[in-house]
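Box S1 | Example of a co-folding query
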Amino acid sequence: MSKIISLCKRRGFIFPSSEIYGGFGSCYDFGPLGVEMKNNIKKAWWDEMTKNQENIVGLDAAILMSPKVWQASGHLTAGFADLLVECKSCHKRFRVDELKTKVCPECGGKLTEPRKFNLMMRTFVGPVEDEAALTYLRAETCQGIYMNYENVLNSMRLKIPFGMAQIGKAFRNEITTKNFVFRIREFEQMEMEWFCRPKEAEKYFDFWKKERLNWYLNLGIKKENLRLREVKKEERPHYSKETVDIEYKFPFGWGELEAINNRGDFDLSNHSKCSGKDLRYVDEEKKEKYFPYIVETSGGIDRVFLALLCDAYQEIKGGRTKTTKPTKEVEILLKLDKKIAPIKVAVLPLVRNKPEIVKKAKEVYQLLKPHFVCQYDELGSIGRRYRRQDEIGTIYALTIDFESLKQEDLTVRDRDTMKQERVKIKDLIKVLKEKLER
Ligand code: GAP
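Box S1 (continued) | Returned holo structure for glycyl-adenosine-5'-phosphate
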């Protein structure tokens, strides 16, 4: 794991938040490569859910909502709390389910009896900081979907079954934050809530379980590193009738990437009761009136990001090049899927002391920039520059050499095979687009 963390910092994927002040409470910032990669993950999910599936519409609800939402959803009560113990000597808190000893793992001190600790982050809205203005940062994005269930149903003239998809930030005051971005206090979720007839919830639960697992496989994650885990009743969230987690085999062990939940009518019936608004669905054809059941797919982008990096990361001792003497260095290769890799194309002049070559390379970079996320690099030997690009998963490295000046072409090097082919500059955009979509 330390190698992934080091790569993230060194190459601009992820930085600790407020680093010059010593970092801040397990929050992280995504750097120039990180934000590109994160956007690629979000786009892959959004396309999959709203374009490739039937009857799913999007939403972008506000993070701040009435505190009544969280009262009705059960998040302010014991349901959304971790069982904690506190050390009587050093006052550090630990989750009971993660504790392996009967004494404080930090200082060996005596521990208190377990007590519940709510995970909601509080904030104040408006000019007066009192209880009346208290609300919470959302702990799951789906509550914004439930708040808009009726608005969307009516404005889009939808019929059950249908889904609503949303991507956005969520906040939890986690006690144990460890394993880099796996468990953090500010994270991003991609959630889809599928509203269906109660009788059909089982069928759709099964359907979504398979669909979601396939999504991860299609992003190139190795099959042996993924599994479905049925979550036992005592472990399930307070709203769930049935939960299956999609887990990834991280270097620190199996960890949840996404939860598939059958939430039954828990949310809509509670919000109906608490708001006084009847949220039952009226089926004119079947002459039925009922609270739809909700089958939810709830993934965390930061965890998917980490899983994709872990899965793609390879170290090759002595390097991959067989044509030149091995450098004896460890070469890093990040074999990210074409859709996910932050940089698609690198433009490299063979040498930087020939102005004509540099000029041509800069022209090519300007030509490609509007079409692909590109990097221009002229520092160091060409071999070293290829390795720098391999380390961040760049799909194609383009080299402008002496031949390019005569032939108006360049070499396109494939990250995985290291094979090079010459392509005319006039055909470059079309060729690269075709290659990247293949
Ligand atoms: N609406 C259902 C829900 O929020 P969850 O299992 O609590 O379910 C769903 O969270 C996903 O959100 C998890 O599978 C995980 O990927 C992500 N997630 C939850 N807490 C997280 C945290 N503290 N840090 C990073 N990701 C988190």
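Residues 430 and 436 are 10 Å apart (CA to CA). DSSP finds twelve helices and 23 strands in the chain.
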